[in-house]
Structure formats: structure tokens, C-alpha cells
Amino acid sequence: MRKKNDFLFTKDATRFYFPWMCWLMVFISTFICGGGMLIYNSLTGWQRGVSESLTVQINTYDEEGRDRGELVLQDVEKALSILRTTPGVIGASVLSDAQMNDLMAPWVGADVAVTSLPVPKLIDVAIDADNPPFLEQLKADLSAHVPSATMDSHRIWLSELVQLSNHILKLIIFVLILLATTTGFTVAYTTRSTLKIHEGVIKLVHMMGAKDLYITEKYALLNAKYALFGSILGTITALPLLWFIISFFQKASETVFQTQYSSIQWGILGGIPIVVAVLAFMTTFKTVLSYLRRFL
Predict the structure, then answer these.
(1) pTM of the entire predicted model
(2) Residues 134 and 198 in one domain
């Protein structure tokens, strides 16, 4: 039995089209935003990691390709002495063969021993992010006392990471704005179509005493309900796809990618359907009220 505040014009073919349009937009937007957030989390994680450390390499082979033997160990001790007495350096340690194997495994395989490769000795240096050392002076000291040492402060890479993470964040915001704009146009177009289709019924109901705000409210609530249904369905179908992709690359994600969302990011993903429903309500309310006051 139809409730007394329901209208006959609320049922038409456009009511099938509208929620599926919302589903498609929210599905694409949730997928893009979710993936973009994971990439952004990974980039900011790398950024924090490299901003608090630097690497010193000690060449194990000379320019002619000959093994430097005991000279390598002497250069490592000299470099450690310089690093540990430099203000702003918290600590310095040489990576062991096991650590080097773990570091190189993704590129050369787990079965290949690093000792069989012409790789340099690596010194991992932890620096004070609040009071970092003067890198140019540190580089000069290493060059003067340990000519075989090269220092990588990651500054160029860090700058590129900051720019890339900012671009990712801008892309996420752009997608959300695009979602809101597209949804608004879709709601307005669908609403105007149904108003034209049921213009006769609207006039009849209006003549029977229904106020403009009453008709507008019912239209807006109905569109918000359809938008919420389609949006929730879009989120429900997008999140499993994200989970599948993350699981597929889980092994690489452990060392390369951040695979966890923050509580705020979960809130953004879960709040997309609510935002779409509110946007549908507001757009429909404005569209219907403007139509009624202009033509009735």
C-alpha cells in the first residue's frame, strides 16, 4: 500500500538509470582515490625514511677492476670514525652481508650471494632530522680522508618524491571534485527529465494543495535515497578490487609499498556515498524548487 506522502511520478525509467550512474562514478572514484592514497602513503613513507638517513659507499674494486682487499676495511674504519664524530650524526653502521643479501634479493634473487658481486660496502648513517649535519663539509671530509668513499644524501630523490606525492594528492582532490561535479550534473539532468515527464501530475498535486517545499522535499529525499544506494554499491564493489590488487602485490608491498590506510583515509573512502547522497539531495532540492517557482 502506497503511503499518503508518496507520489505517482516517482516511478519512471530514469530511476533505474540514476543509481547505476552513481554506482559507476563512485566505483571509479573509490578505486582511483584508494589506489592514489596507497601510493601517497608509500611516497610519504619513503620521504620520511630518506630524510633521516644517508648512505656512504666504500668501493671494493679500484678503477681497473681489481679487488682492493684489506684497504676496504681500513677505509670503512676511517669513514666510520669521521661520521660518528660529526655533529648531527646519530649513528653509523656497516651493513652486514646478510643485510646486503636482503637488500639485493628483489633485484638479483635470494639465491645469489652479495659477496660474489662487485658491490660496494654500505654504511647506513642516521642523522638528526631537527639538527642535520652540514653535508657539504661532511662530504669534503670524507673525500679528503677516504677517497674511495661516496656519499648519497638522497636530496635529489627526496625532492622528486615530495613533488610526486604532491601531484598524487592533487590528483585525488581532482577526482573528488570531478565526482561531485559529474554527480551534480547527472542529478540535475535526471531531475529535469522526470519533472518534464510528470508535469501534468505535478500540476494536479499542486492544485490539490501540495506546497512547493513539500513536493521539493519528497523529490530530494527520493533522489538522495537512490544516490545512496548506488554509491554504497559502488564502494562495496570497488574495495574488494583494491584488496585483490594489494594482495597480488603483497610480497613487494612489504618493502616497497605502504598497504595500510589511516583512519582518516578510511573515513574518506567510507564517506563518499554519504557525500554523494547529500549532494544529490541539495542539487535536487534546488532544481525542483526552481522549476516549481518558475513554471507553476
Answers:
(1) 0.63
(2) no
